[in-house]
Amino acid sequence: MTAPSTLGENSVLHASATLDPAFRVAPVSRRTFGSFVEHLGRCVYTGIHEPGHHSADADGFRGDVLALTRELGVSTVRYPGGNFVSGYRWEDGVGPLEQRPRRRDLAWHTTEPNTVGLDEFVRWTRKADVEPMLAINLGTRGVAEALDILEYANLPAGTALADQRVENGSKEPHGIRMWCLGNEMDGPWQVGHKTAAEYGRLAAETARAMRMMDRNLELVACGSSNSRMPTFAAWEAEVLAETYDQVDFVSLHAYYEPLDGDIGSFLASNVDMDRMIESVVVTADHIGAKLRSPKKIMLSFDEWNVWYQSRFKGTPVPEDWPVAPRQLEDQYDVTDAVVVGSLLISLLRHSDRVTSAAQAQLVNVIAPIMTEPGGPAWRQTIFHPFALTSRHARGEVLRVEPSSPRYETARFGDVPVLDAVATWDEDSHEATVFAVNRHQDEPLVLEVDVRGLPVSAVREALTLSDDDRTATNTAAQPDRVVPRPNGTAELADGRLRVQLPPVSWSVLRLGQGE
Ligand code: AHR
Fold first, then answer.
1. Which of 334, 425, 435, 461 could form a disulfide with 466, with the two C-beta atoms 3.0–4.6 Å apart?
2. 366 CA closest ligand 1 atom index
3. Per the domain annotation, does 2 fall within a domain?
4. Residue in 42, 183, 227 to alter for ligand 1 test, most ligand atoms within 8 A of Cβ
5. Ligand 1 lined by 361 (C-beta under 6 Å)
6. What domain range is 406 assigned to?
7. Residue 195 included in any domain
8. Which keywords are on file for this protein (predicted)?
9. Threshold 0.90, pTM exceeds
10. Number of domains within the chain
């Protein structure tokens, strides 16, 4: 990382920002704080579900994971995949347990016992107090099976599949509103991968039929699997040209990791997320303009996270099809948590168009919550920025117009050292600033002009940073990395001043004084 050219050797880095209700973006959408449970690795089995665990309830759900899910502040949970859904037969996962078949899951090279399926998942969401978001299989299946699962899930008793749900123990319809029309259908790794033309037609016809059965749906068309796909943007344009009138959202997926040890670029990952969001917005609006449509397509960023994909070695033993093996169990450190905090800043600042998102995933698989079978559950480092942002981002999102020193990155060019966004909650009269110092060596003094808002005191200032950026939380040391009070924060004469340590994420809560 190069020091900003405007500073002398011993200068302290300074950045500034302004809080003003006139810089309103949009209301905070609770669905920004979604998560994802896929039948992958130990996310379901020994993740959310482990009968026999000392904390498990009568349905076999781990109580410790339920408690941590609530603490994380999750709003929606996408299910059951991911790549898994593109070969999934939802019928396998309902009805008497002893009649459920075991199947090979081609996506992750495992055996799916189908112990948990749709009804169990919905029951879990009620206990976790989250909204279910269901993905349907448009890889190996189509319109008929989409209508079947919709009838089973959402219709009142009186037709064959709705009656089957009642027989299976769920008298009331599940009332699922958000449905993803397939998963990453642009990816050649996807079972049933399609071209944009093939997928666009199928998604449009599926959506049309689903709405004929249930008008109260919010439908998500698959966008690109990531912004490096050769078809990125062209895919969205072609798919939306077919589906524009039938869907409400287009999906975005993005995972970040340090490449070749380049931490400077990694810390600026959300620059890529910003660009991706803005590219999809203009692409969607271009299609809307061509169709002369007054409608705006919203964005569902329904897979995002830090994922050490380069460490993922695939599925090594071709003959072996294990049940719920350890897969994608990344251990997150301090830098990863700072990056996750900054990705949330990006999502929030685009709240006018990104009104749904899901961190991938919830438990054990690239996850904020880890468990040991028969053992404890604990919070990874990335748990903390998510939980605090979900808890304190309330009211309206405000841009903060930061002015910051900059540094050069190999992947994203020249980027600011500071990134920040704020929220203002009229009801509680609380303003909250979320801020990241991306500098690897220098603290950053941030000064925020708050004269535009009726706030006069710092209610709480917490910072996540550590001298050892590789520190992680483990079963043995679950609280090695936690956010700590930042004693440097002070508010006087309408200005908040705070020192942000190098590689840090902070939440600064401001309100009225005594
Ligand atoms: O979240 C892990 C995988 O990443 C999902 O199954 C897939 O949709 C994406 O490629």
1. 334
2. 1
3. no
4. 183
5. yes
6. 13-23+398-511
7. yes
8. Carbohydrate metabolism, Glycosidase, Hydrolase
9. yes
10. 2
Question: Hey, what amino acid is at 274?
Answer: D
> Domain containing 195 — which CATH number?
3.20.20.80
d(CA 342, CA 256): 12
Cis check for the bond before 80: say yes or no (omega within 30 of 0): yes
Give the ligand 1 atom nearest the CA of 40.
Answer: 6
Q: Are residues 43 and 178 in the same domain?
A: yes
Q: Which of 184, 236, 396, 430 is catalytic?
A: 184
* Residues 160 and 173: beta-carbon distance below 8 Å: no
> Is the separation of the CB atoms in 474 and 376 below 8 Å?
no
* Per-residue pLDDT reduced to its tens digit, 255-310: 999 999 999 999 999 999 999 999 999 999 999 999 999 999 999 999 999 999 98
Closest listed residue to residue 503, CA positions, set 468, 447, 465:
465
81 lines ligand 1 (CB under 6 A): yes
381, 336 contact by CB (below 8 A): yes
Which of 35, 38, 133, 329 has the most ligand 1 atoms within 8 A of CB, as the residue to mutate? 38
Q: Is the CB of 190 under 6 A from ligand 1?
A: no
Closest to 265 in 3D by CA, of 421, 393, 414: 414
C-beta 499 within 6 A of ligand 1: no
354 and 484 together in one domain: no
pLDDT, tens digit (0-9, with 9 covering 90-100), for 46-102 = 999 999 999 999 999 999 999 999 999 999 999 999 999 999 999 999 999 999 999
Residue 7 lies in a domain: no
Is there a domain that residue 199 lies in? yes
Of the candidates 71, 63, 57, the one whose C-alpha atom is nearest the C-alpha of residue 386 is 71
Q: Which residues on neighbouring strands pair with residue 499, listed in sequence order?
A: 445
If one counts every other C-beta atom within 10 angstroms of the C-beta of residue 195, the result is: 13
Residue 6's nearest CA partner among 329, 406, 371 is: 406
Amino acid at position 487, single letter: G
For the question of residue 184 being annotated catalytic, the response is yes
* Residues 18 and 33 occupy one common structural domain: no
- Ligand 1 atom nearest the C-alpha of 107 is 6
Together in a domain, 480 and 499: yes
**How many whole angstroms from 253 Cα to the centroid of ligand 1?**
9
Q: How many CB atoms are located within 10 Å of the residue 454 CB? A: 13
Reply yes or no on whether 303 is catalytic: yes
